[in-house]
Amino acid sequence: MNAPGLYVGAPYHYAAVVESGRMVFAAGACPIDEDGVVVPGGIEAQAQKAVENLFAALDAAGAGKADVLKTTVYVASSEQPELVRAWEVIAAAFAPARPPSTLLGVAVLGYREQLVEIEAIAVAG
């Protein structure tokens, strides 16, 4: 839902309401493959792999991208344009949904050369 009086151009909704269902809390999805290696290729490639991994975790929990209530996206950068590059990939993956989201630039993430991580809260059922 959007809130009256807040900026209407935000690329996400300001809040989500849960009427019923089973809550799913997804750990931060990283751009890793089955060998645990961070996907090379920069922010966009890592954002794409991280969101694919998030969707796989949600699916295993019985939820899908349309069930996501909130995301938090971490980008290892202090440059705002790099945060936007990651956000554009993630927003496109969720479209047409626009879950409430927080986008943060951080100094470092958990894996060597990791640039992007995304966590989510969803409701299944």
Give a short synopsis of this structure.
By secondary structure, the chain is of the alpha+beta class.
Protein described:
The protein has 125 residues and is α+β, with helices and mostly antiparallel strands. It has a single domain, classed as 2-Layer Sandwich (60s Ribosomal Protein L30, Chain: A). Helix content is 27%, strand content 24%. The protein contains 2 helices and 4 strands, in the order E-H-E-H-E-E. Helix 2 (80-94) links the parallel strand 2 (68-75) and strand 3. Helix 1 packs parallel to helix 2. The chain is globular. The model has no long low-confidence stretch (mean pLDDT 91).
Mean pLDDT: 91
Radius of gyration from the alpha-carbon trace, in angstroms: 14 Å
Largest sheet: 4 strands, mixed
- Kindly report the CATH topology: 60s Ribosomal Protein L30, Chain: A
Number of strands: 4
Strand content: 15-25%
| Uncertain runs | none
How many angstroms separate the termini?
Answer: 19 Å
The helicity comes to: 25-40%
Descriptive terms for the model:
2 helices, 125 residues, 4 strands, alpha+beta, 24% strand, 60s Ribosomal Protein L30, Chain: A
Which helices and strands, and how do they pair?
Layout: E1 22-29, H1 42-60, E2 68-75, H2 80-94, E3 101-105, E4 116-124
Parallel strand pairs: 2-3
Antiparallel strand pairs: 1-4, 2-4
Helix pairs in contact: 1-2
